[in-house]
């Protein structure tokens, strides 16, 4: 599975999770409105109809997912992704530095071995050469 497919699957799961979370928040907001209603014995107490929408909207707004919260979640997700990418870049740079160091060392080893090989070849060639012919010495120097 490619990394893009993996990320798409991850994003789909995350989106499904956020949708479920939003549904739960709405359900909790509705339950909060219901539970914060006056108890049954006070059911027939006089209540201003003008206050009821304010109570409901305040409770729903307090518990429901908001655009600001969604933006904060998106920002946190992006910050996490940026941190992961920075960590990956750091790992790749470290690997690259290690590979470059190994490459330089290999190049130096090749140069050294070539010098040794040429020196060895010249030594072998000089050993295989026949000795120079002996000259007859002059009688003057004998």
What does this molecule look like?
- With 142 residues, this protein is an all-alpha fold.
- It has two domains: 57 residues, no CATH class; 52 residues.
- It has three helices and no strands.
- α1 runs antiparallel to α2.
- The termini are far apart.
- The model has no long low-confidence stretch (mean pLDDT 76).
- Keywords: Coiled coil.
Key terms for this structure?
142 residues; mainly alpha; 2 domains; 76% helix; rod-shaped; coiled coil
Estimate what percentage of residues fall within beta strands.
under 5%
The assigned structural class equals: mainly alpha
C-alpha geometry: rod-shaped
Figure out the total of helices.
3
Q: Element order, helices and strands?
A: HHH
The profile of the biggest β sheet is: none
Give unreliable regions as ranges: none
- What's the total count of β strands? 0
Helix content: over 70%
Outline:
It is built from three helices and no strands. It has helices spanning 3-35, 51-63, 67-128. The chain is rod-shaped and about 130 Å long.
Layout of secondary structure:
Elements: H1 3-35, H2 51-63, H3 67-128
């Amino acid at each position: 599975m490619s990394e893009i497919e993996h990320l798409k699957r991850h994003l789909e799961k995350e989106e499904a999770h956020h949708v479920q979370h939003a549904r739960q928040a709405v359900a909790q907001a509705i339950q909060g409105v219901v539970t914060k209603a006056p108890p049954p014995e006070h059911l027939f107490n006089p209540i201003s109809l003008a206050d009821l929408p304010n109570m409901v909207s305040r409770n729903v707004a307090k518990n429901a997912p908001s655009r600001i919260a969604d933006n904060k979640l998106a920002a946190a997700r992006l910050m996490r992704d940026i941190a992961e990418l920075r960590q990956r870049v750091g790992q790749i740079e470290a690997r690259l530095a290690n590979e470059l160091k190994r490459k330089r060392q290999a190049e130096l080893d090749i140069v050294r071995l070539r010098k040794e090989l040429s020196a060895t070849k010249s030594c072998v060639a000089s050993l295989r050469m026949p000795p120079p012919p002996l000259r007859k010495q002059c009688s003057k120097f004998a």
